[in-house]
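Troubleshooting log. The previous structure file for this entry was overwritten by mistake, so regenerating from the original sequence record. Sequence copied from the archived sheet and checked twice against the printout by T.R.
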Amino acid sequence: MRRINVEITENTKDMNPLIFGHFVEFMRDCIDEGMWAQVLKNRGFDKRKDIPEGVVDGNPEVAEGWVRTGSKNTFEIELDAEESLARDGHAQRINCYNAYDGYVGIAQNNLYLENKEYSGYIWMKASGNVEVEVCVREKEGGKIFSETFRVDDAWKKYEFTFCSKQRMDRGTFEIILPGEGEIWLDSASIMPSDNMEGIWKKVFEHICGLEPPIIRYPGGCFADCYHFEDGIGDIDTRPYRRNRHWGGFTDNSFGTDEFVSFCRKIGCEPMICVNFGSGTPEEAADWVEYCNGAPDTPFGRLRAENGHPEPYGIRYWDIGNEIFGDWEIGHSSAEDYADRYLEFYHAMKAKDESIVFMVCGGDGDDRSQEWNETLRRKIGASMDALCLHMYALKSMNREKHDNRDVYYAVTGSVKKYEEILRESYQLMNEKSEKKILTAVTEYNLGTIVDSYREQTLEAAVFNAGMLNMFMRNSEKILMCNYSDLVNGWPGGCIVSKNGDAFGTGNYYVLKMYSESGLDKIYEVRTDSPVYSTTGKIGNVEPLEDVPFVDLVAGRDKNGNLVLFAVNRSLDEEFCVVTEKRYGEAEVTEICSEKTSDMNSPENMCMIPRTRMEEASEKGIIIRPHSVNRIRFAGRAAE
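Regenerated output below.
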């Protein structure tokens, strides 16, 4: 068994905890469904059905996701834009004008309910005074809850609670008009009563387990089509908007105030990416004022009216997302981005001089510095950090590769990304009036949609290597944001569905690193054997001299020496031997039988496993394709 000799020098740098940051986006089921604990879909009746041309739908005026119920009675039903509570939305109008011993209603089927209490409400008004029943049914049709309300001619929120006595995936929520009358319905809601700041309880607990220092919001690509005023004010009056980038819709329930409250609850810093692509400098400045302005400013006053009189003091502002890419709304040249960025900079800085400005750097997967050079030349000191995104395996170009080759390319690509990060940092600080940091505001193994390769042990080894790289370069980095926190691309480190949640291998790697409490990073020297790759795979060109074992060392807040050792080898164990003997070590390992293994609720194969081991001259054994934390209790390197 080969040895890896580790020399820990006396040279240290401060640890930057913001490298363990995260990222959420209105993309697929990341925020909506994955985080936000709303059971109902299209809860405001705002989206019409998409009825193909030539198809006859018996109830074309019933909102998408809802169905008409009842029989015998004669009725009309329509989506009424004039009576909508939400901006640009609809209310669902039901008029029974001839009762015949039946009823007419509207329902949403296939609700997933746990054995717990739920809190709900629905806004209703009527012509005159009308009796309306609200009920929840089990899949066989029996009622598990029913409550009758007298509804009058003014909009009112009618609240209710109920308990589901069993887990079910075919529940039904139904609103019934039992007799003649005319009613309007809007903004229904059913959420589990144990939600945390509107987040599913189990998801919230998993997020807290990561101890995230900062979270980026609301995108991503979505940021360049998001208008923040859609997500403030009364949650039931917000507009239902089409997601112009990712498709689908959002009802904007998780807006700025909800995001900040969530961050405060878990103890992390909120970060905002503004709409550069389809927004304006004035809109971005208004968002800064809404978050940070005093209550006597126009948007600070609006925030106070929305229940938050104290300024949020959000420091970090990302100006646009991936504007270099032709997939991005607002795509432009580097010259045009720089010119327009300066308009955003001056407008936003006029609202708050203290905020940190983060510019959209060039493609972080490409070694070219042409885009970044333009920003350095045109923007200069009017920025604080250059943002890069790093995804090793965006595609495989429809080519078949040996999976050993893929594994060594993507896990070894950390070497390429370290070179890009250092080159970007060096470029931005040439003749600079101040220190310009880098920020890796998105990174992961890749974005191959629905491959779930991002949840495998291969991805965990890659991301552990990235964390080691970030720690080695902490003085050059403002922050890093793993993509994504929940679902989103299948790379979400937390997998959430209907409120159930579990952590992927990446989750446990991120947790193991972030909870280690490092305050210093040591300069280390190792003699790991190396490997090289041939051919291009994904975004990874041929690599040379990639160390099999990637190792960093730090000191935790209790003075303990901590090593992080990533063994990239598919076949070989190594012995990690420190120059000095530090006595007994606590070794925490994340590994599995195959690099294609991934966690599931039934088989959590990648969780940290801890053992105590004597750090003798024989060293500490690290297994193939494993991520290891080695903590020497009570022993620092000095």
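The first strand starts at residue 2 and ends at 14. Archived copy saved in two places this time.
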